[in-house]
Amino acid sequence: MAPVSALAKYKLVFLGDQSVGKTSIITRFMYDKFDTTYQATIGIDFLSKTMYLEDRTVRLQLWDTAGQERFRSLIPSYIRDSSVAVIVYDVASRQSFLNTSKWIEEVRTERGSDVIIVLVGNKTDLVDKRQVSIEEGESKAREMNVMFIETSAKAGFNIKPLFRKIAAALPGMETLSSAKQEDMVDVNLKSSNTNASQAQAQSGGCAC
Amino acid sequence: DHADSTWGRFFRNAELEKTVDQDLSRLYPEHGSYFQTPGCQGMLRRILLLWCLRHPECGYRQGMHELLAPLLYVLHVDMKRLCEVRTQYEDYFTDKFDGLSHGDNLSYNFDFKKIMDSMEEENDIQENTVKVTSLDELDTEIQTIIYLCDAYGAEGELGIVLSEKFMEHDAYCMFDALMSGAQGSVAITDFFSISPVGGSLSGLPPVIEASTALYHLLSGVDSSLHSHLVELGVEPQYFSLRWLRVLFGREFALENLLLIWDEIFAADSKKLCSFADGEGTLCFNIFSSSRGALISGMAVAMILHLRSSLLATENATTCLQRLLNFPESVDLLKLIEKAKSLQSLALDFHLICPSPSFGVDYTNSKPKVVRSHTHSSDSISSVPPLNKVPDSYWEEKWRVLHKADEVKHNSLAKQSKTLTQKKGWSEKLRITLSRTESDPSRTKAESHKKGQQKSSVRRNLLKDLSKELCLEEDDVDVVHIPVPNLKEHQHAEIEAGDSVGGNFKCSTEERCLGDNSCSEENSPAVSDPSSPHSGANNCDCENGSEKSCVGSNSSIDQNDHHPGDDSVVLPVSLLPGEITLDLGSETDRTEKPLTGTKKLLSSKLQWFWKFGRGSTGEVTSEKGQERVDARKPADDPNAEDDVLGASSADASFHSYSSARVDVVDQNMMGTLKNLGQSMLEHIQVLLF
């Protein structure tokens, strides 16, 4: 049973180079649709979605950033209060893959280890144009100690698993300042257990 | 070493091309028919690449392509329209010169010419009163196009202006003018900059400074909404980054966007002087020109439009979602109208209030202004804090205004539409034919007409461009007569070093925004002439009353069209009339506190200037414009007046003229104003 009154809110910030498919991933997740063309994001776009998980309900606040932008001077707080940073690259663009290091670094600088980072290789449908193998992605994720998954927003591949994975890794109910907290304790424990086991599975290279 | 080498450049350019292409390929997918055509994509690409190469300090930033695309679209649509008309009405596009030289259809051409002349001379004559020719049976718009295609007429050949050959070039120039600001104070490149630009007083990146300015303006009109957003942590740049960078391009459908751009480009981007300059005080650059102020006004009007929806949520992301998904069904004219009233408020901030002090609430900065007031006039120590208004006051005001607006709106829209249509032809002709025409209000009126919208965006940008290029005078059709004059005054006043009246910005605001709402409740307190103040204090009072008058004046204009609302406004409109005695005695009184002849001169000048400006406002309102149009010219001098402070002669006179507008015979007023205007022009000549 998900407690309606104690809806946990989490901020997810989407980072990555221009045109790697950040908006497409979000749109696929939000509305389960895909357009071949989304206009370039200017500044930041904001979306939110409630996710109903087995054991709880969470409210995800998605910050979809423009790829070209380095916001730090304009919006210093854009990473600061986010629980999750989703760093996306295009498997058909090596450069976008190389640049993920910079993004990860930026998030670490701001948040240290107090943040969940997911490395996402998008556009797996571009089989012929692939420039970054799944192994490279996995090894980088291991090296940087972040989660990893490959997706295709266009084909609708692995989008839901991506968000389920994120939700499972979210900090548990201990951050909730709700009166219902006591009721949730055992659920909390359960979820953090699955959390840990999943995290291990991921670092082992769970491409689903 | 690689950076400057040929290969380095090569790779950088390749990178640039890739970035540009990535964005262009996904530009306006829903308008695919035009923007995704190879021809359009090619032009956009070349223009952007060239511009970026020529402006390496800026380079390509995401969003630029969306500033360029509407410009190209406007050119394209105009050109397409001309082609259509050409094919459809081929017979009418006779070349007069050829006709004359051949001599076989001389008589026809002779007649044609006569009609042309009479149309030019007597703009007000409706086309159907002119002698019958087959041309008259055509649609007026098509007639205009045909007239404008007269290769040897005053306007030159429209076909050349709208030639496909020059389209790319024109689009580049317009884009460049937009980006670099054409020497005005609004350059869109600034909004893309992530570091402070030169001359910035705040030390903030321009887009952050502008965002702060928006919240500053918002806090002035709706402090509760402002504090709601601040409490939720909704920083202004979260949403204004996009609003400003593409000039609202993402927030409105293209056809609505073009109307908004019309308004924005029609506003002067020239930087207005302020007391803040050179005093080391902070000032929002975006408020320093009427264009920048209109952009801010537009943004704040949009926030206010979402007011109840924003206040209803306690979630920052939801707020931002709403701000960045502006409703499509918005009433655009109403929004623009609101933006304009906020524009004059923003200009007031700039001109009156020298130190908005970043991050400090509007209400907190008030005492500072009062203090500077004290410096300038010695006998002021006993001034009571006339403008102490509780925070809830603005909220109340806004609510009342909002309600009143809603009620009024339908009839207003209907009426203005019919009125505009009635004089459509004569007006259109004047705009299109007369090169020296510079009345901005007419341009505005025109821009409300869908049929004309595209060309006006273009015209306005080309105006900017031509300013920049310093073309010969007859190509620059924007020289705004009062502007140099205004500057003159401000210089004079800066020498006088006086900032009296700053603490009255409150009442201005109240009138601007409180409109015809319950503004009478405060007026007596502000303008009570019986309070035992010193001379300088008297000045203040008159300033205050003058403003209340301007405000009420605008609502009276409005009431001319909507007699139903009289009950609310009339009591206000009477007030200034009571206070304002006859002109002579007012001037006498003012001369007392003023000592230097220079001051006197400037105040007199101001007096005349206002007279002239007043007439602009009058003309507009007589034509049945929306009330903002009438209000804007009326408020502008008002803003300067606050700067000029001590010259209460003009203040009182202005109130005199405004108050009388509805009481005195209109013709009489017109004559007086013409007189005033011509005197003003003479004085200008003498001064220069």
TrEMBL record, chain A:
Coiled coil: none annotated. One of its GO terms (biological process) is protein transport. Keywords: GTP-binding, Lipoprotein, Nucleotide-binding, Prenylation, Protein transport, Transport. The keyword Lipoprotein applies. One of its GO terms (cellular component) is Golgi membrane. It is a lipid-anchor. It comes from the Eukaryota. PROSITE patterns: RAB (PS51419), RAS (PS51421), RHO (PS51420). Transmembrane segments: none annotated. InterPro entries: P-loop_NTPase, Rab, Small_GTP-bd, Small_GTPase. It is found in: Golgi apparatus membrane. Pfam families: Ras. GO terms for molecular function: GTP binding; GTPase activity. Its main location: Golgi. PANTHER family: RAS-RELATED PROTEIN RAB. Belongs to the small GTPase superfamily. Rab family. Interacts with the C-terminus of GC5, but not with GC3. NCBIfam families: small_GTP. This is Ras-related protein RABH1b. It comes from Linum tenue.
From TrEMBL, chain B:
Residues 517-537 have a biased composition (Polar residues). It holds the Pfam family RabGAP-TBC. It comes from Linum tenue. InterPro entries: Rab-GAP-TBC_dom, Rab-GAP_TBC_sf. Keywords: GTPase activation. The lineage of its organism: Eukaryota, Viridiplantae, Streptophyta, Embryophyta, Tracheophyta. Residues 431-449, 620-635 have a biased composition (Basic and acidic residues). Gene3D superfamilies: putative rabgap domain of human tbc1 domain family member 14 like domains, Ypt/Rab-GAP domain of gyp1p, domain 3. The keyword Transmembrane helix does not apply. Transmembrane segments: none annotated. Residues 431-458, 517-570, 615-644 are annotated as: Disordered. This is Rab-GAP TBC domain-containing protein. Residues 1-268 form the Rab-GAP TBC domain. GO terms for molecular function: GTPase activator activity. The keyword Magnesium does not apply.
